[in-house]
Write a structure and sequence with these properties.
Strand content of chain B: 15-25%
Number of helices of chain A: 9
CATH topology of the largest domain in chain B: Transcriptional Co-activator pc4, Chain A
Number of helices of chain B: 5
Largest interface: A-B, 30 and 33 residues
Oligomer: heterodimer
Order of helices and strands of chain B: EEEEHEEEHHHH
Radius of gyration of chain A: 16 Å
Distance between the termini of chain B: 133 Å
Helix content of chain B: 25-40%
Order of helices and strands of chain A: HHHHHHHHH
CATH architecture of the largest domain in chain B: Roll
Number of domains of chain A: 1
Largest sheet of chain B: 4 strands, antiparallel
Distance between the termini of chain A: 31 Å
Strand order of the largest sheet of chain B: 1-2-3-4
Number of strands of chain B: 7
Largest sheet of chain A: none
Radius of gyration of chain B: 35 Å
Number of domains of chain B: 2
């Protein structure tokens, strides 16, 4: 299979992939299992034969506590993008509820605070909190902003054209 | 028997319906659409939109790239002032402006939130990738953004702030060093030292 990715992803893109998966886990309490089972359903056993392999790929995020050196191969990147887009599609009703301004305001704010709390717990648990960018991520105002952006990315990546869009955005030149 | 085919793409807040005919000169099947005769877009809370193929093409060519840029957190306007459709970010919503080709008709302005935007994008994506519809939509392909395109997301102060801060720190430090007086020897000491030197020279 020929890869449609032109270059290997930079560290910002690796961070973003892991944060998107972390957001999925914040949305779905059984998220880590659902990520693994979706990978099996999509026929990605070769890329992620078990949970440990999937975890190893995610540990390429330099912000992780147990960060690993190296980078994702183009095929691994495509598999992870497909995984994110498929799960986003399954979670679309939930993503939509969070983004909608027509939902009752008190219920929306409760949903957001629950999501932010879970996301911050996961960041605390898995990321290296001594790093400046992780400390910044844990600041409530910034965390809310990042979370909203992540939910919008997941929503716009969920449709039939989502894979292409997400793949292009992850290859942006880093500033 | 009518060859007219109707296809609908439905999401929570948007329903896009297209009607058309197969292009028999290209040997298309009966259920295919090669010639689009009309389209309708219903967005919750707004009036129903209708138009010609050119308007739908214009909508696709601005909304899909806009969504692509949103993924990179770059908020900018798509569609020029003479284009039938344009989309731009507002404070926390997205402004969709639809201009009529008829004179003296004011442009229709629709404010949609993130959820409605993603519904619209999913409808347009479904149409764009539908194998039953053989129309060249002329949508720009999704490309990675270069640094210049991404800097538009950073506020001006953030872009120039750091260099200005650096230059001012350098200037201030230099100024501080200039203000420190150069240590000069006391005149009386100078005379005393000169006398001692003269004494020494006499002795030798």
């Amino acid at each position: 299979m020929k890869s449609s990715l032109k270059t290997k992803l930079g560290r910002k893109a690796l961070e973003r992939i892991d944060l998107l998966l972390l957001t999925i886990e914040s949305l779905d309490l059984n998220g880590s299992e659902s990520i693994y089972w979706t990978s099996q359903r999509l026929g990605l056993e070769k890329r992620f034969p078990n949970r440990v392999e999937l975890w190893k790929k995610r540990c390429l995020n330099p912000l992780r506590k147990s960060s690993r050196r190296g980078s994702l191969t183009n095929h691994d990147t495509e598999a992870l993008i497909l995984l994110i887009c498929t799960i986003s599609n399954n979670l679309y009703p939930l993503l939509r509820q969070l983004l909608s301004s027509r939902e009752p305001e008190n219920i929306t704010s409760q949903r957001w605070s629950l999501l932010n709390r879970r996301f911050s717990e996961l960041v605390n648990e898995r990321m290296n909190t001594r790093r400046g960018s992780v400390t910044k991520l844990l600041q409530s105002e910034y965390l809310t902003k990042v979370n909203r952006q992540m939910i919008l990315i997941l929503a716009l990546s969920s449709g039939p054209g989502g894979v292409d869009r997400l793949m292009a955005s992850l290859q942006d030149q880093s500033i | 028997m009518s060859l007219k085919t109707t296809i609908s793409y439905s999401q929570t807040s948007a329903i896009l319906t297209i009607e058309g005919l197969p292009d028999l000169s290209l040997n298309q099947d009966e259920e295919n659409i090669g010639i689009l005769s009309s389209w309708k877009l219903s967005l919750i809370g707004t009036s129903e939109l209708e138009g010609k193929l050119i308007h739908l093409k214009a909508m696709m060519s601005v909304v899909l790239p806009y969504a692509r840029y949103c993924l990179s957190n770059v908020k900018r306007e798509f569609g020029s002032s003479d284009s039938p459709v344009s989309i731009s970010p507002t404070r926390d919503k997205h402004k969709l402006l639809l201009r009529s080709s008829q004179e003296n008709v004011k442009p229709l302005e629709l404010l949609i939130d993130d959820a409605e935007l993603s519904d619209l994008v999913r409808c347009l994506d479904s149409l764009y990738l539908d194998s039953r519809v053989s129309i060249d939509w002329k949508v720009p392909i999704n490309k990675p953004l270069d640094k210049v395109e991404q800097t538009s997301r950073s506020p001006f102060a953030e872009i120039v702030g750091l260099p200005i801060f650096g230059i001012s720190i350098t200037l201030l430090t230099s100024l501080m060093f200039l203000l420190i007086p150069v240590a000069q020897e006391d005149d009386s000491n100078y005379l005393l030292k000169s006398l001692i030197m003269i004494e020494h020279s006499k002795d030798s």
